[in-house]
Amino acid sequence: MISFFICLFLLVGGFFVYGKFAEKVFGPDDRRTPAIAMEDGADYVPMGTARIFLIQLLNIAGLGPIFGALAGAAWGPSVFLWITLGTILGGGVHDYMIGMMSMRHKGASVSELTGMYLGNGMKQVMRVFSVVLLVLVGVSFSTGPANLLAMLTPEVLDMNFWLIVVLVYYFFATFVPIDKLIGKIYPIFGICLIVMALGVGGMILFSGNYTIPEITLQNLHPNGTPIWPVMFISVACGAISGFHATQSPLMARCMRSEKSGRNVFYGAMVAEGIIALIWAAAGAAFYNGTGGLLAALGQGQASVVYEICFTLLGPIGAVIAMIGVIACPISSADTAYRSARLTLADWFNYDQKPIKNRLVLTVPLLGVGAFLTQIDVQIIWRYFSWSNQTLAMIALWAASVYLLKRGRAYLVTALPATFMSAVSCTYILMAEEGMRLSTSVAYPIGILFAVGCLGMFTYSCILRKGKNIALPVGDVNFD
């Protein structure tokens, strides 16, 4: 339990210390933001900081920090370290830098930002990569809520009925003005997510019936699945997630001041890390070890959430849990489709102020999503997990070049970018859905790939310094 509190303290302290350092590295100022200069009543809509924080939290979180943390706890309390250090040094920096870069570039999506700083070829890759990833998120978080709603309603309202209802909601959430639907209901569900985590954490800590294990680096996974790199892929939301890079530009288009960036982007990531830490501890303590937890996860992660909430918090907890496991994935999927629409709009330079233009992109996106719901979601999710962390790697390298071009302390992003390069490469080499190589082959290749990425970046630093190249910065100043 002591190590849990240490990690909790580090997460909170990380916001005030390392978050402040990241803010200083970027250097926000008083320039007008896209929300003010480009207000269109649809996607560029100024909103208050507290409201944006709750929307951002639900955008990036959903059930990610719950499901991912429970899965990660199957390796034992070593997951506490990844959640803590990943959030402070990786996820918080990743979300903050992409959000702030987007504000500096008219609210541009991550694919466009990547193209600006890693070249046109990478931009084309990221455009496709981002849209595919976002649609996979939408598909993954469609069938689950529909199944749960079918279980709670009369038999005539089956899964297909609720799937249609969910997809219809996604249709409206994808194209209506962001402050009319998402801006009104997300803060409520964001509060529910926080209350659920605090309630579960409080009962685990203070009921006297459970013991949170202390951190050990020993692999406690019952199946012997290696920590590296599988745990780092399994626990994405709650540590670092490339999906967040697609979400931060949504709020970058709604912020009134650059100086709110640390509270919104870094702060929401820290809040997600705390939620993940609580649920990882709850999973390990409630099932009294990784064996019991893994067996429970075999019945489905939603059932684990329900069991924990109902046992610890009673009927009220059960209601909150059901709201969480239904509303939270829906909240991730609708903003995923919305981000996909905006990514396509940036791609084709297609003005999204007219409703007709929004519908032109929304209808085919939801059509593809509806078709993919007929495929086994577990297959889709396996590919999402890897592509998610690969996107984080690419986004961090783009942010590193951004900082390099401005003479800033680029190591704040280059080091986590190197780490995530090793994680992503190693995983796809050894994963079942990848090349299925042995660890003796995958590990050294993954490390060499990461070193190669860092070497290329270092070479560009030396080249720039040696030739005194004045690289264009490209920031937009509306004043």
Q: Count all strands and give the number.
A: 0
Helix-strand string: HHHHHHHHHHHHHHHHHHH
CATH topology: Amino acid/polyamine transporter I
Q: Determine and state the CATH class.
A: Mainly Alpha
Protein name: CstA N-terminal domain-containing protein
Family: Belongs to the peptide transporter carbon starvation (CstA) (TC 2.A.114) family.
Subcellular location: Cell membrane
Domain CstA N-terminal: 5-143, 157-278, 294-425
3D architecture notes:
With 479 residues, this protein is mainly α. It is built from 19 helices and no strands.
Please give a handful of descriptors for the protein shown.
single chain; CstA_N; globular; CstA N-terminal domain-containing protein; Amino acid/polyamine transporter I; transmembrane helix; 479 residues; mainly alpha; 74% helix; cell membrane
Topology:
Blueprint: H1 2-16, H2 18-26, H3 34-37, H4 49-60, H5 64-72, H6 78-104, H7 110-118, H8 120-152, H9 159-175, H10 182-206, H11 230-234, H12 243-252, H13 261-286, H14 290-297, H15 301-348, H16 355-372, H17 377-405, H18 411-430, H19 439-467
Helix pairs in contact: 1-6, 1-13, 2-6, 2-13, 4-10, 4-12, 4-13, 5-13, 5-15, 6-12, 6-13, 6-17, 6-18, 7-8, 7-17, 8-9, 8-15, 8-16, 8-17, 9-15, 9-16, 10-13, 10-15, 12-15, 15-16, 17-18, 18-19
Domain CstA N-terminal: 5-143, 157-278, 294-425
Organism: Hungatella hathewayi WAL-18680
Subcellular location: Cell membrane
Describe, in short, the structure shown.
With 479 residues, the protein is mostly helical. The chain has helices at residues 2-16, 18-26, 34-37, 49-60, 64-72, 78-104, 110-118, 120-152, 159-175, 182-206, 230-234, 243-252, 261-286, 290-297, 301-348, 355-372, 377-405, 411-430, 439-467. The protein has a single domain (1-379), classed as Amino acid/polyamine transporter I (Up-down Bundle).
